[in-house]
Amino acid sequence: MLSIKNLNIWYGGIHAVKGIHMNIEKGEIVTLIGANGAGKSSAIRAVAGLVKGYKGDIVYTPPGKAAVPLSGRPPEEMVKMGIALSPEGRRILPQLTVEENLRLGAYTHSDKAGVAEDIDYVYGLFPRLRERRGQKGGTLSGGEQQMLAVGRALMSRPELLMLDEPSLGLAPILVSEVFGIIREINRQGKTILLVEQNAFAALKIANKAYVLEVGSIVIEGTGEKLLQDPRVKDAYLGG
User: Which of 158, 190, 163, 191 minimizes the C-alpha distance to 179?
Assistant: First the structure.
Protein backbone atom coordinates (compact mmCIF):
# COMPACT_ATOMS: atom_id res chain seq x y z
CA MET A 1 0.00 0.00 0.00
CA LEU A 2 2.79 2.45 0.88
CA SER A 3 6.41 2.25 -0.18
CA ILE A 4 9.08 4.64 1.12
CA LYS A 5 12.49 4.43 -0.52
CA ASN A 6 15.62 6.38 0.40
CA LEU A 7 13.69 9.18 2.12
CA ASN A 8 15.88 12.12 3.13
CA ILE A 9 14.59 15.25 4.87
CA TRP A 10 16.53 18.36 5.76
CA TYR A 11 15.60 21.38 7.86
CA GLY A 12 18.21 23.92 6.90
CA GLY A 13 21.53 22.28 7.73
CA ILE A 14 19.94 19.54 9.85
CA HIS A 15 19.63 16.14 8.17
CA ALA A 16 16.53 14.95 10.05
CA VAL A 17 15.73 11.76 8.10
CA LYS A 18 18.58 9.83 6.50
CA GLY A 19 17.76 7.51 3.64
CA ILE A 20 15.08 5.38 5.28
CA HIS A 21 13.18 2.54 3.56
CA MET A 22 9.76 1.28 4.71
CA ASN A 23 6.96 -0.86 3.29
CA ILE A 24 3.40 -0.96 4.59
CA GLU A 25 0.98 -3.59 3.33
CA LYS A 26 -2.80 -3.26 3.34
CA GLY A 27 -4.32 -4.29 6.66
CA GLU A 28 -1.15 -3.92 8.71
CA ILE A 29 -0.39 -1.90 11.81
CA VAL A 30 3.13 -0.56 11.31
CA THR A 31 4.85 1.45 14.02
CA LEU A 32 7.80 3.81 14.09
CA ILE A 33 9.39 4.04 17.51
CA GLY A 34 12.33 6.05 18.77
CA ALA A 35 13.35 8.88 21.04
CA ASN A 36 12.06 12.42 20.67
CA GLY A 37 13.78 14.04 17.69
CA ALA A 38 14.60 10.75 15.96
CA GLY A 39 12.74 11.78 12.77
CA LYS A 40 9.53 9.80 13.25
CA SER A 41 7.10 12.68 12.83
CA SER A 42 9.07 14.10 9.91
CA ALA A 43 8.67 10.82 8.04
CA ILE A 44 4.89 10.63 8.32
CA ARG A 45 4.48 14.36 7.71
CA ALA A 46 6.26 13.79 4.40
CA VAL A 47 3.70 11.10 3.54
CA ALA A 48 0.90 13.56 4.40
CA GLY A 49 2.35 16.22 2.08
CA LEU A 50 3.39 18.51 4.93
CA VAL A 51 7.15 18.39 4.23
CA LYS A 52 8.37 20.08 1.08
CA GLY A 53 11.57 19.41 -0.81
CA TYR A 54 12.40 15.97 0.56
CA LYS A 55 14.49 13.56 -1.48
CA GLY A 56 13.48 9.98 -2.19
CA ASP A 57 10.36 8.17 -3.32
CA ILE A 58 7.03 7.78 -1.54
CA VAL A 59 4.53 5.72 -3.53
CA TYR A 60 0.95 5.02 -2.46
CA THR A 61 -1.19 2.28 -3.97
CA PRO A 62 -4.88 2.73 -3.13
CA PRO A 63 -6.86 -0.52 -2.98
CA GLY A 64 -7.79 -1.63 -6.49
CA LYS A 65 -5.97 1.26 -8.15
CA ALA A 66 -2.61 2.03 -9.72
CA ALA A 67 0.40 3.19 -7.72
CA VAL A 68 0.69 6.97 -7.27
CA PRO A 69 3.97 8.85 -6.53
CA LEU A 70 3.27 11.34 -3.73
CA SER A 71 6.18 13.75 -4.12
CA GLY A 72 5.05 17.34 -4.66
CA ARG A 73 1.36 16.68 -4.05
CA PRO A 74 -0.51 19.00 -1.63
CA PRO A 75 -1.97 17.67 1.64
CA GLU A 76 -5.58 17.97 0.48
CA GLU A 77 -4.83 15.64 -2.43
CA MET A 78 -3.44 13.05 -0.04
CA VAL A 79 -6.70 13.18 1.93
CA LYS A 80 -8.76 12.68 -1.23
CA MET A 81 -6.63 9.66 -2.14
CA GLY A 82 -7.33 8.03 1.22
CA ILE A 83 -4.46 9.11 3.50
CA ALA A 84 -5.30 10.82 6.81
CA LEU A 85 -3.10 12.09 9.64
CA SER A 86 -4.05 12.57 13.27
CA PRO A 87 -1.25 14.96 14.26
CA GLU A 88 0.89 15.16 17.35
CA GLY A 89 -0.67 17.56 19.85
CA ARG A 90 -4.21 16.75 18.60
CA ARG A 91 -4.70 20.16 16.92
CA ILE A 92 -8.44 20.23 17.43
CA LEU A 93 -10.24 23.59 17.17
CA PRO A 94 -11.05 24.48 20.79
CA GLN A 95 -13.85 26.96 20.08
CA LEU A 96 -15.81 24.51 17.93
CA THR A 97 -17.99 21.75 19.32
CA VAL A 98 -17.10 18.09 19.12
CA GLU A 99 -19.47 17.57 16.21
CA GLU A 100 -18.24 20.66 14.38
CA ASN A 101 -14.68 19.38 14.68
CA LEU A 102 -15.77 16.04 13.25
CA ARG A 103 -17.59 17.68 10.35
CA LEU A 104 -14.42 19.58 9.46
CA GLY A 105 -12.71 16.23 9.00
CA ALA A 106 -15.27 15.40 6.30
CA TYR A 107 -14.52 18.48 4.20
CA THR A 108 -13.73 16.36 1.12
CA HIS A 109 -17.22 14.78 1.19
CA SER A 110 -20.46 16.51 0.23
CA ASP A 111 -22.93 13.63 0.73
CA LYS A 112 -24.87 14.61 3.84
CA ALA A 113 -26.24 11.14 4.52
CA GLY A 114 -22.77 9.62 4.23
CA VAL A 115 -21.27 12.21 6.56
CA ALA A 116 -24.02 11.55 9.11
CA GLU A 117 -23.20 7.82 8.92
CA ASP A 118 -19.51 8.61 9.41
CA ILE A 119 -20.30 10.66 12.52
CA ASP A 120 -22.36 7.77 13.92
CA TYR A 121 -19.43 5.43 13.18
CA VAL A 122 -17.05 7.69 15.13
CA TYR A 123 -19.52 7.94 18.01
CA GLY A 124 -19.73 4.15 18.03
CA LEU A 125 -15.96 3.94 18.48
CA PHE A 126 -15.90 6.78 21.02
CA PRO A 127 -19.17 6.86 23.01
CA ARG A 128 -17.86 9.69 25.19
CA LEU A 129 -17.73 11.93 22.13
CA ARG A 130 -21.43 11.28 21.51
CA GLU A 131 -22.14 12.36 25.10
CA ARG A 132 -20.16 15.56 24.49
CA ARG A 133 -21.22 16.24 20.91
CA GLY A 134 -22.35 19.80 21.70
CA GLN A 135 -19.43 20.60 24.03
CA LYS A 136 -16.57 22.81 22.86
CA GLY A 137 -13.40 20.92 22.05
CA GLY A 138 -11.27 23.06 24.32
CA THR A 139 -13.23 21.93 27.38
CA LEU A 140 -12.57 18.22 26.82
CA SER A 141 -10.03 16.24 28.81
CA GLY A 142 -6.75 15.28 27.16
CA GLY A 143 -7.95 11.76 26.47
CA GLU A 144 -11.21 13.01 24.97
CA GLN A 145 -9.33 15.47 22.76
CA GLN A 146 -7.17 12.61 21.50
CA MET A 147 -10.28 10.61 20.70
CA LEU A 148 -11.66 13.62 18.84
CA ALA A 149 -8.44 14.01 16.83
CA VAL A 150 -8.56 10.36 15.77
CA GLY A 151 -12.27 10.60 15.01
CA ARG A 152 -11.76 13.71 12.90
CA ALA A 153 -9.11 11.87 10.83
CA LEU A 154 -11.51 8.95 10.32
CA MET A 155 -14.14 11.32 8.94
CA SER A 156 -12.21 11.56 5.66
CA ARG A 157 -12.78 7.79 5.15
CA PRO A 158 -9.08 6.94 4.90
CA GLU A 159 -7.58 3.67 3.73
CA LEU A 160 -4.30 4.60 5.45
CA LEU A 161 -4.65 6.20 8.90
CA MET A 162 -1.49 7.78 10.34
CA LEU A 163 -1.38 8.49 14.07
CA ASP A 164 1.35 10.72 15.51
CA GLU A 165 1.94 10.13 19.24
CA PRO A 166 -1.65 9.21 20.19
CA SER A 167 -0.65 8.34 23.78
CA LEU A 168 1.27 11.55 24.47
CA GLY A 169 0.31 13.03 27.84
CA LEU A 170 -2.35 10.44 28.63
CA ALA A 171 -2.79 8.53 31.88
CA PRO A 172 -1.95 4.80 31.63
CA ILE A 173 -5.59 3.69 31.74
CA LEU A 174 -6.39 6.01 28.82
CA VAL A 175 -3.34 4.79 26.89
CA SER A 176 -4.74 1.27 27.11
CA GLU A 177 -8.15 2.46 25.94
CA VAL A 178 -6.76 4.41 22.97
CA PHE A 179 -4.61 1.49 21.83
CA GLY A 180 -7.60 -0.83 22.13
CA ILE A 181 -9.53 1.46 19.80
CA ILE A 182 -6.59 1.54 17.35
CA ARG A 183 -6.73 -2.25 17.25
CA GLU A 184 -10.47 -2.15 16.61
CA ILE A 185 -10.06 0.39 13.77
CA ASN A 186 -7.50 -1.94 12.22
CA ARG A 187 -9.81 -4.95 12.61
CA GLN A 188 -12.44 -3.00 10.69
CA GLY A 189 -10.13 -2.74 7.69
CA LYS A 190 -7.98 0.36 8.13
CA THR A 191 -4.24 0.20 7.55
CA ILE A 192 -2.41 2.09 10.29
CA LEU A 193 0.97 3.81 10.44
CA LEU A 194 1.68 4.65 14.07
CA VAL A 195 4.38 6.97 15.42
CA GLU A 196 4.81 6.44 19.13
CA GLN A 197 7.26 6.99 22.00
CA ASN A 198 5.45 4.41 24.14
CA ALA A 199 7.37 1.53 22.59
CA PHE A 200 5.78 -1.22 24.68
CA ALA A 201 2.19 -0.26 23.81
CA ALA A 202 3.03 0.25 20.13
CA LEU A 203 4.98 -2.99 19.67
CA LYS A 204 2.24 -5.04 21.36
CA ILE A 205 -0.22 -4.19 18.58
CA ALA A 206 2.16 -3.82 15.60
CA ASN A 207 2.52 -6.33 12.79
CA LYS A 208 5.76 -4.64 11.80
CA ALA A 209 8.01 -2.09 13.47
CA TYR A 210 10.92 0.19 12.69
CA VAL A 211 13.26 1.81 15.22
CA LEU A 212 14.61 5.24 14.29
CA GLU A 213 17.70 6.74 15.87
CA VAL A 214 18.97 10.15 14.78
CA GLY A 215 17.11 9.91 11.47
CA SER A 216 18.14 6.36 10.52
CA ILE A 217 16.38 3.01 10.81
CA VAL A 218 18.58 0.87 13.04
CA ILE A 219 16.28 -2.09 13.76
CA GLU A 220 13.25 -3.52 11.97
CA GLY A 221 11.09 -6.60 12.28
CA THR A 222 7.78 -7.81 13.64
CA GLY A 223 6.38 -6.15 16.74
CA GLU A 224 6.77 -9.42 18.64
CA LYS A 225 10.41 -9.78 17.56
CA LEU A 226 11.30 -6.25 18.63
CA LEU A 227 9.63 -6.73 22.01
CA GLN A 228 12.18 -9.49 22.64
CA ASP A 229 15.18 -7.70 21.10
CA PRO A 230 17.75 -6.86 23.84
CA ARG A 231 18.65 -3.58 22.15
CA VAL A 232 15.02 -2.46 22.16
CA LYS A 233 14.52 -3.67 25.71
CA ASP A 234 17.53 -1.72 26.96
CA ALA A 235 16.80 1.49 25.07
CA TYR A 236 12.99 1.71 25.09
CA LEU A 237 11.45 -0.87 27.44
CA GLY A 238 13.35 -0.19 30.62
CA GLY A 239 15.51 -3.30 30.30
Answer: 163
